[in-house]
Model the fold of this input.
Amino acid sequence: MRVRKVYLPIVASILCLLLVAGEASAKRFKMAQGDAEGSAQDAMGKKFAEEVARLSGGKHKVKVFPNGQLGSEQDTINDAAIGTLDLSLLAVNNITPFSPTVGVFTLPYVILSLEDAEKLTQGPVGQELVANTIRDANVRIIGWTYTGFRVLTNSKKPIKNVADLKGVIIRVPKNEIMLATYKAWGVNATPMAWSETFTALQQGVVDGQDNPYLTVHSMKFYEVQKYVTNIRYIFSIEPLVISESVFQDLNKKNQDIILQAGKTATLYSAQFLRDSEASIKKDLIAKGMEIVDPANNEQEFIDLATKAVWPDFYKSIGGKEKLDHVLKVLGR
Done:
């Protein structure tokens, strides 16, 4: 009996140490998102968090901060690069200034369908861009959000051709390729942070912007915009990135959990877009938005953008041969 009394405190101490060690190894990740709840980013982020919890048996948690709570998308990729933020989900055009080769995905009229986007991001082209982004920006792309084509919205008038853009002030992200595209259409677009966009539209500082239907809906742009033009100049891809320093601090098992959760969330994102976009269009119409198609199947927009913009950015994306390879992968 005396022996038991001596060892019981020791056993209890060991159990406490094991419990403390177990708690210490549990990870609590913070994820920044630029878009609001209900968006494609939100669906992607929640699926990733769910998968991390499932694959870790509930040990690891991901807390999602939507709608720019942790700063602008430009700020959060900076924070991830220096290791003060774990994860960020952001538009690919906000990674391009840090890792220019990713800009191939924002060249106008390169990606013409969701299937094109899946083929590029989930294949060798995507893997090369993952490696480049680690090298250039110290962040690792672990998943891809598919949000759809960036349609043009505005509060002034229906836009069916390039001439209709005259006199309409358009907000775009601070991205050289997107600014150059509007310039090719005769528009000096206004670069503006995402966090400022709704207020600028509301106050009439700018008349319009472009974003996918899912984003237009989740951000409630129907409250400040009337007209939608179905342009297809950029298919919006929004990578989920993890700080490379945070990733390297994880053991192999936890790295595998992060990578597998990213793959599963990527597949989920594609299906979410397929399931959601048509009903969202109908709801935007019900809320008073008018949707028009560009004249002549958008050919005027396509010709001006591809002829003027593509050559100016061959160097930044890694050379004309890189674009030729991407187009070949897509069968064009």
